[in-house]
Predict the 3D structure of the following.
Amino acid sequence: MTPQAGLSFEQAPPILVPFRFFLSAPVFGVLAALTLLWQGPALFDSRWMPPALALTHLMTLGFLGLAMLGAMFQMLPVVAGAPISRANSVSLGVFGLLVPGVLTLASGFLLVSPELIRLAMGLLGSGFTLFILAVAVSLKRAANNPTSRGMRFAVLALTVTATFGLVLASNYGWGWWIANRIQITSIHLAWGLLGWVGVLVVSVSYQVVPMFQLTPAYPKPLSAWLPPGLFVLLLLWTAFTLGNMEALVPVAGGAIALAFALYAGVTLRLQTQRRRKISDVTLLFWRYGMAALLLVLTLWLAGQAVPQLDNWPGYPFLLGMLFIGGFVVSVVNGMLYKILPFLIWFHLQSRLTGIAKIPNMKEILPEKAMRRQMRLHFAAVPLLALAPLMPPLIYPAALIFGVSMLLLETNLIFAFGVYRRNLKLVS
Amino acid sequence: MAIYKNVRQLHEEERPSGKFMETISEYLSSDHHRCDDLFALAEELAGDGKWERTATEFGAFLESMRHHFAMEEEVLFPTFEERTGMSMGPTQIMRMEHQQMRGLFDAMAQAVEKRDQDDFLGQAETLLVLMQQHNLKEEQILYHMADQVLGGEARDVIARLRAVA
Ligand code: HEM
Ligand SMILES: [Fe+2]
Ligand SMILES: [Fe+2]
């Protein structure tokens, strides 16, 4: 963490390093939609049923996990000045382990197969170990800014999540039914959704929110303290949960919820102060995501106050749909629409300058196609959230969500096609 | 002595209320801000199809960027390279990115001439991302390093930056 750290100013890694992740992520969104269509309203019987667990992990490990890992491979050199060494082999190894890992985990749940779950444990365990080690080495050399500090906490949270995830999976692999499975699941999902996913989104927004929309920077105390603050609160919450301190658990939980609400509020406010007046899909995706985050936090707080709500079996589904589908998927989707076309432009200009005209970002990924997909996503989220109340809604909701993910995939493939066609001009 | 002063400068800069000593970091970062505003205005005007005013404001943006690049390429980078002995390091990459941005300036100027809205906005979008990540690297790393290695000389460098036409 010397001032020299950011010195390397390393340029972007080879294009496939992040792209293999980005291009595969939406496929898992489509698989999640198919699972919803296949299971239908029965899915809402209980969050503990294997199909619900398959669905959760197709989204969290498949869609979000791949997109976020791809983004980290890309962003570490750029924002933290700390490239992952041998990026291409590491990325290929992580990808080659995690993709079959998620697929076997999901099919292990759906087919109730202990063998597949054990196989998934090996694949996911080694894939995450490789990723975490590679990132840890690189983050040690990273420039010391709020984003790279936040990334450290996010990766620590991922380590906790994966460890508890493997413990829980061993239950399914060998059937020894751990006594405090419910507690461990709570800890696993809190570290996964709030620690890994939440803290990474928060840290990345310090850079990208001001950058894409020319908003003022996040207030310094907030950007410096939010990730470590959330991390400490999660530790406290975990200690209270494990220690059965019934009175303190909701206090720590409430503090975490308020911290995220503060973040969402500040982000929305910064966006109203943006100096770039033109609106674009990324901005709309972010605003939608922040609104969903505020809504899910309100509903969670309401559940703490009203036990009937908390006891309703549909409640965790409602929270999950809004947090994962409404908040995180929106933000990630919006980010993909900026990062992908920019990287394609970037890689093309280094090859084509002086040889051919380089397509601009909107030629690489046309605005119309992005807007069409965005509207479908915005329609899918409320339907998904209402489906636990009105189970037959699951069909239109899953259908629209599936088409949205399919269009996201075809949009990304279209963009990559522009890259490949233009590269041919060189040879 | 010089080192002591550096550290103090860095601290004062972190303090929101204690900005009585100007740094290279402050000076050039605020110039980024000024260029960004001109960019946003030109983009907004082009989005509304107001080509006459787009041409004027885009011209002002280009002029501000030309001046900013000149300050960096003619004063800051050479001084930094001389002090650190690193001529192939970060400054080289910054120069390369300036070159990439100049390519986009030309493409945007052509789009203004042809009043091609889609092309202008597409190029603008590309430039924005490139320019912002460039500025981020300068503001978060390079300018800070410059303030550090140039130490007591920083004020003199700022005076020379001001003198760039
Ligand atoms: C190594 C990777 C992972 C493995 C092996 C794994 C495994 C598991 C298992 C076995 C359960 C079910 C617990 C039970 O029913 O007893 C579970 C639940 C859950 N996991 Fe994971 N997990 C992993 C990563 C993640 C990540 C990264 C996230 C989020 C970002 C996540 C989010 C969740 C959620 C939200 C639940 C609760 C689902 C529900 O209540 O329906 N998991 N996980
Ligand atoms: Fe520059
Ligand atoms: Fe600059």
